[in-house]
Amino acid sequence: MFCNSVNLDTENNKFEVALPLKLPLESINETLGQTFNLALKRYLNLEARFQRDPELHKLYSEFIHEYVQQGHGTFIDISQYNLDSDPVYFLSHHAILRPDKKTTKCRVVFDASMKSNKKVSLNDLLLNGPVVQKDLIDILLLFRTGEFIFVTDIKAMFRNISLAQKYRSLQNILWRDTPKENIQCIQLNTVTYGLKSSSYLATRCLKELAVRHREQFPLAAHIIEHSTYVDDALVSHDSSELLIESKRQLCTLLGIGGFHLHKWYSNCASLLDDIPKSQQHFDDIELGKDNDASLKTLGISYNINTDSFMLSSPSTNENMPTTKRDILSFIGKFYDPLGYAGPILVTSKAIMQQLWLAKVGWDERPPDELLKVWCEFFDSLQVMSPITIARHVGVCNARSVQIIGFADASSTTAYGCCIYLRVTDQTGKVKISLLCSRSRVNPIRQSLTVPRLELNAAVMLAKLVVRVYDTLHHKLNIDDVHLYSDSQIVLAWIKTNITSLNTYVGNRVKVITNDRNR
Question: Can you give the pTM of this predicted structure?
Answer without folding.
Answer: 0.89
